[in-house]
Amino acid sequence: MTSAYANSVLDLLRLLVVPVFAWAAYTDVRTRRIPNKVWPPLFLGGLVLFALTVQRALEPGVPFASNALPAAVVSLGVVAPVAYLFWLFGGFGGADAKALLVLSLLFPIYPVYEVAGVVLPLPGNENPLGSFAFTILTNTVLAGVLYPLALSVRNAVNGEFALPMFLGKRVDAASVDDRYGTLMGRNDGMTAGSLDLDALRMYLRWRGESLDAVRSRADELRDPGTLPANPNDPTDGNLDAVAGTDDPDGGDSTDGAGTTDDETADTAEADAPVADGESAAETAVNGTDGDDAFEDAWGAEAFLEDIDGDAYGTSPESLRDGLDVLAASERVWVSPGIPFVVPMFVGLVLALTVGDLVTAGISLL
């Protein structure tokens, strides 16, 4: 498409989504939640713009019709299903999937803008499929790769060399209830205890106990007989949530991320040895020191049955393992996750200006 079609009404309307995604990215970083009320108007606007785009492409004499229709098919037939499948298999949060679905409707073809005589996106940087939504997706993936790279560099600088260094950071076990993300395991990481930290907060609020209590009174709290007769509202696990209150907007969770921790050098802290050579953490995690004494250690199964849900995919076993790890370890690995709407916003802005980063990179070779 040439600059003769720049700044059309449809393309200018598409730009309204940019400030919305900027706000969503900010909200994603701050709370790992995006209110549900954001999506209905965007879906409706996307459907209208998609229909008008297809209608325009079908008009006689439109020179880009042969490219527009296949691009629209790619947007709905490839990008939209990718969003759904990633959500289905746990790769995306609900908000991430909805955001990508919205973009597949709003940007089925490449828009054209002319600013101060410069045509944007830069001509020649289109992907062969002609789908602008696909360009946003690939740009998002490239932008998202920067986060684990930065995380691994940070861990290397701090002397943390282990497999989880590309996915997480090692923090004080006592601090994890003030973070977003996923507990990955003990000092060496990824051995046991994977637990969504939102689910951990839900459990603690439901039970009316603190993480400090779990760590200091583990033998007592493993006994399901200590569960409260009238459990509290578990909330949704958000850091800002208050038990007993409802969030009027609901909100989809996104991939969790941690709060900033002190940039101090980490030193490995050995757990006290036991007779068979295992550390205390390993003993607790392997169920040889407490869990086997109770049919429902920690009341994990009772918790999940009472809330009538899975608490972000949490099973009774993963909740027990996570609590055992936190009770027995001083340092643990936590994966902050990637607030995916952030790289999606970056990918959108890059797509609207530079175009397709993969195509641009290949052209430079």
Automatic annotation (TrEMBL):
Locate the region Disordered.
217-292
Gene Ontology CC: plasma membrane
Question: Prepilin type IV endopeptidase peptidase domain: which residues?
Answer: 16-147
Q: Which residues lie in Acidic residues bias regions?
A: 260-269
**What does the UniProt keyword field contain?**
Cell membrane, Hydrolase, Membrane, Transmembrane, Transmembrane helix
Kindly list the residue ranges recorded as spanning the membrane: 6-26, 38-58, 64-87, 99-120, 132-151, 340-364
Q: What is its main location?
A: membrane
User: Per the UniProt record, which EC number(s) apply here?
Assistant: 3.4.23.43
Record-annotated Preflagellin peptidase C-terminal domain positions: 329-357
Query: Superkingdom of the source?
Result: Archaea
Q: What is this protein called?
A: Prepilin peptidase
Organism of this sequence = Halorubellus litoreus
